[in-house]
């Protein structure tokens, strides 16, 4: 049975998910919580191998194959790592989960959202987050914050793709229980303050 809380950090590339996840983990550890920090795609040996394949620039993968690779990674990750940690009472923080698949493969690539919802339900074994924080930033920061970074296959998509995804995230926040928009243009410390307030609000 699930005893721990499941927190998902969402949003486009470079919006600050990893930065906020590290700060949040430290905060939870200070509070004496037993925590697990993980990410998608990946999170286990098998899932990380799928991640490498799906993010490698220049690899030819059709949108539908891409969707199934993400869901395969999720199925492995959820069963092997996330569910056992939640059953052991850990607070699990995961960078990206089902909303990312809707944003990229659904709103971005145009695959029917109903298909994605169905596959998400299968891959997650019905697990849903207790809290989803969606970090959205102005597009100008995508270039600014990514200046020195290597761009993976999905980060090489253009502005129009990123705008479709952004609208997708906004739509999903409206219809997803316990999902919140976090303004990722702000200073790192101010964002973290808001993140902690939202956890408190949800007794996490
Ligand atoms: N609020 C912020 N303001 C300015 N720079 C930031 C902010 N948050 C993150 N960064 C920087 O932007 C880059 C991408 O952040 P990162 O946390 O890796 O994003 P993500 O995990 O969402 O891809 C990093 O260089 C990070 O230091
Ligand atoms: Mg990251």
Brief write-up:
The chain is of the alpha/beta class. The chain contains eight helices and five strands, in the order βαβααβααβααβα. It has one domain (6-201): Rossmann fold, CATH 3.40.50.300.
Describe the structure.
This protein is an alpha/beta fold and 204 residues long. It has a single domain, classed as P-loop containing nucleotide triphosphate hydrolases (Rossmann fold, 3-Layer(aba) Sandwich), CATH 3.40.50. It has helices at 17-30, 45-55, 63-87, 98-108, 113-123, 140-144, 159-175, 188-201, and strands at residues 6-10, 35-39, 91-95, 131-136, 179-183. The protein has a 5-stranded parallel sheet, with helices on both faces. Helix 2 runs antiparallel to helix 3. It is globular and about 45 Å long. The model has no long low-confidence stretch (mean pLDDT 95). Adenosine-5'-diphosphate is lined by residues 13-19, 145, 187-188, 191.
State the major sheet.
5 strands, parallel
**How many helix segments?**
8
Ligands, deduplicated: adenosine-5'-diphosphate, magnesium ion
In terms of per-residue confidence, which ranges show pLDDT below 50 for 5 or more consecutive residues? none
> What string, H for helix and E for strand, traces the elements in order?
EHEHHEHHEHHEH
The average pLDDT value, as a whole number, equals 95
User: Could you state the CATH homologous superfamily?
Assistant: P-loop containing nucleotide triphosphate hydrolases
Structural category is: alpha/beta
Instruction: Give the overall shape.
Output: globular
Instruction: Give the domain tally.
Output: 1
Helix percentage range: 40-55%
The name CATH uses for the topology is: Rossmann fold
Distance between the termini: 18 Å
Q: What is the beta-strand fraction? A: 5-15%
CATH architecture: 3-Layer(aba) Sandwich
């Amino acid at each position: 049975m699930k005893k721990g809380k499941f927190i998902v950090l969402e949003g486009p590339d470079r919006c600050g998910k990893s930065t906020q996840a590290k700060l949040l983990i430290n905060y939870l550890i200070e509070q004496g919580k037993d925590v697990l920090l993980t990410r998608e795609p990946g999170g286990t040996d098998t899932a990380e191998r799928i991640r490498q394949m799906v993010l490698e620039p220049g690899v030819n993968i059709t949108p539908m194959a891409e969707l199934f690779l993400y869901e395969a990674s999720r199925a492995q990750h959820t069963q092997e790592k996330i569910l056992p940690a939640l059953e052991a009472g850990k607070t699990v923080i995961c960078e990206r989960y089902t909303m990312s698949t809707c944003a990229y493969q659904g709103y971005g690539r145009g695959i029917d959202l109903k298909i994605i919802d169905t596959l998400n339900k299968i891959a997650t074994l019905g697990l849903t987050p207790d809290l989803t924080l969606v970090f959205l930033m102005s597009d100008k920061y995508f270039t600014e914050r990514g200046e020195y970074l290597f761009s993976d296959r999905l980060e090489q998509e253009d502005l129009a793709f990123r705008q479709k995804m952004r609208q997708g995230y906004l739509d999903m926040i409206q219809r997803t229980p316990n999902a919140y928009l976090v303004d990722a243009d702000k200073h790192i410390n101010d964002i973290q303050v808001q993140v902690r307030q939202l956890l408190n609000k949800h007794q996490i």
